[in-house]
Amino acid sequence: MNKKLIITGGSKGIGRAAIDAFLKEGYQCINISRSTIAEPGVLQINADLSKMSWLQDCAQSLIDAVAGAEQLCLIHNAGMMEKDNIQNCEPANLAAVLQVNVIASQQLNQLILPYMRKGSSILYIGSTLSEKAVSNSCSYVISKHAVVGLMRATCQDLAGTGIHTACICPGFTDTEMLRTHLGDDPSIIDSIAKLNGYERLIDPDEIVSVLQFCADNPVINGTLMHANLGQLET
Ligand SMILES: NC(=O)c1ccc[n+]([C@@H]2O[C@H](COP(=O)([O-])OP(=O)(O)OC[C@H]3O[C@@H](n4cnc5c(N)ncnc54)[C@H](OP(=O)(O)O)[C@@H]3O)[C@@H](O)[C@H]2O)c1
To answer: Which residue, by CA, sits nearest to atom 33 of ligand 1?
Structure first.
């Protein structure tokens, strides 16, 4: 079967691990990110999702790339995290975070949906912060709650099409985003790891195995799925 993966943010972290795993499953992969990965079997589309016009230069390449796919898995993974709070979160910053984390996903949905056949899937990457808030993550919390709304609307609007959807919500996962957010401080990273019930960070591959399960199982539809090793509530 001609299976294709389109993923945003496949250059690093969870997205990079997803590309490796889907390649092993026989998928042709299309990665959308600013930095380039050169990997046999991967079509690289360079784009900055923070610009609302990002599709202008690459829409036709994406359509050409997905044409003929019998099964498409679309993973909205790229994410932007800012440290801000309700006092200092500027509307322009909020708009930028929403553009990368939510609006770019919907732009891609609109473009790709006409080419998605029965058995295809749209998977969103949320966060533990899709269902709760912590301080100093205001724009990110807002955007990750919105991702869940987009997933639920996807499920309702695509009823009967044979396309299923889910939002996978990672906990603290060992990636550049997390390390940058924590200032790459080993003692802080260690204390954050202890907030996971298994006292370690999640490996990106553990999130990817959940993504593969969701892609393969249409019974998972409209589902918000936490993948966080049992995060302790503080
Ligand atoms: N790590 C965690 O603990 C954690 C927890 C919960 C949820 N998540 C979510 O998991 C997803 C993946 O995060 P990660 O931890 O794997 O982060 P990461 O290692 O920093 O990777 C982020 C990816 O997003 C892409 N990206 C960011 N801004 C972009 C932009 N403006 N245009 C195009 N691509 C952009 C990056 O590509 P380029 O830099 O090459 O453009 C990169 O490939 C995100 O949605 C994040 O919110 C992560």
So the answer is: 33
pLDDT at 183: 87
Q: Please report whether residue 140 resides in a domain.
A: yes
The contacts of residue 18 (CB under 8 Å, 6+ apart) are: 5, 7, 10, 75, 77, 204, 208, 211
Q: What integer best gives the mean pLDDT of the chain?
A: 96
For residue 19 and ligand 1, the question of a CB distance below 6 A is answered with no
Name the residue of 77, 140, 203 to mutate for ligand 1: max ligand atoms within 8 A of Cβ.
77
**How many domains would you assign to the chain?**
1
Indicate the SS3 state at residue 63. Answer: helix
Would the CB of 58 count as within 6 Å of ligand 1? no
Structure tokens at 129: 């912060």
What confidence tier does 182 reach under pLDDT thresholds 50, 70, 90? Answer: confident
Is 69 a domain residue?
yes
- State which residues form the domain around 20: 3-172+203-227
Give percent above pLDDT 70 in the chain.
100
Would residue 189 count as lying in a domain? no
The CATH number of the domain where 82 resides is what? 3.40.50.720
Cα–Cα dist 134/87, whole Å: 14
Determine the residue type at 60.
Q
Query: Which residue has the CA at smallest separation from atom 17 of ligand 1?
Result: 177
Listed in sequence order, the DSSP H helices in the chain are 13-24, 59-66, 91-98, 104-112, 138-157, 176-181, 186-193, 204-216
Q: What is the DSSP letter of 132?
A: -
